[in-house]
Predict the 3D structure of the following.
Amino acid sequence: MSEIKVIDPVPDFTKFDSRLYLGMDVGGTKIRTALVGEDGTIYAFLKEKTPRDCEPEVTIQAIETSIHALLEYFLLPQNRITAIGIAIPGVVEPQSGDVVVTPNMNLTGIPLGKRLSAHFGIPVFLGNDGNLGTLGETWLGAARSSRNSVGIFVGTGVGSGIVIDGKLWTGAGHGAGEIGHIVVQTPAMGWKARLGNLLPESVVTEKVPDFPVCGCGNVGCLETFASRTAMEHEIQEALKLGVQSCIPELCEGDVSLIKAGTLAKALKANDPLVTVIVHYTAEVLAYACLTVRHLIDPEVIVLGGGVMEACHRYFMPIIEKITEADRLPAAPSQRRIVLSQLGDDAVVLGAVALARSGMNYGENPAEDVKPDSSRPKFVWNETLGVMNVGSKVFDSDFFVDEQGETFLRTETDGKIHRSELKSFVDEQISQIIIGVKGAEEAQKLKVTEKAIDFLTLKGIFVRVCPMEEAAEVMNCTTQPTVGVFFIK
């Protein structure tokens, strides 16, 4: 069994009188189970591998085992949990708790909610993982300040969710927001090919491409071109064709499963094959973002999931460049495309938000938790190139700690060092926001190996974003957050 990660300080639950929830992200490669408080505080989590190539009962048992393990660790009776929220990568019927279809898993047709509720004697609420990831980001993350947002989560597949006026929009059949299954390349035969012999012999007609079949059974779906699985298949095919890559070495010879972290290592090593595949995938995702913008025009598009978290430094500049070049005009607005603020926590927190809503303890969780009003307000003045932090004005690089105290940086080499991080990052910090002036500056930014090791060991999520977005995150976050701003 995997180790349970405990977030300090953990209260004495025998004297803890607030509600407790379990949030679960049941994905294609892992099952993540979190013990969560009423305000979204994650006290502990357990991550297990999802059983592969097995009967549904094996997966259900793995879910039950994860829940039992977390409860037993804290000696919590089952009735101490108010409700369980579970995210599933597919279409679910929330009223009945039935799984309608899971394209990349084996839970299709399983009455999972009823099974688990009967087993534990606890109310269980099911939702689509993309929907709940978006709900989590709306409650406590990158879309906290918006009323209308879309989340796109790139992992085993491509999940998504839509929030309109602060509430999830799931459609008539609870299938809305499945951006991974929008058709981005049609298999329809072209009109010239249909004319056949009616055309002069000199006219060359194109054949219909041989598209891969999606897990949902259709062809031409976005996730067959832009998911971790799609990248995995493309790399496997290239390796069979004789293309050289460090991937086999990183995977110790077994390339049947290529994880997002492995892709990130290959990118760092400037592997030519992975670099090409990632660039192509980023372009496909960028055009998907344009499609979302033209169809729904949300205030915020949040990009998350394991692939984005591991490789966002390579994806985001490409996505920003393509979306900024959009030629279809819109009225002036604060539309933006941002990286997930909650990382792996987005989905489990969204699952808890769903459970709270199902228990009528928060119909709209986005309005339940407010940022700390005692922190100074951040305002980026692009015209003057300065950041206002409360009454202070900065025209050079600076830090800001969790309490909002600011410190000028002494390093001038354009790098972030472990020594300076240690001076203002403590055990309670969950994320560090790095503000830069644009995509070009983001690419130039360097974090030293020792600084990366320091942040990794402490489990701190790093997010690099433009100054205006960084200011908004600092203003809206409810998580323990520090910032580094590169102004000059």
Q: What stands out?
A: The radius of gyration is 23 Å. The chain has three domains: 4-130+346-365, 149-339, 370-485. The domain at 370-485 is CATH 3.40.1230.10 (Hypothetical Protein Mth938; Chain: A,).
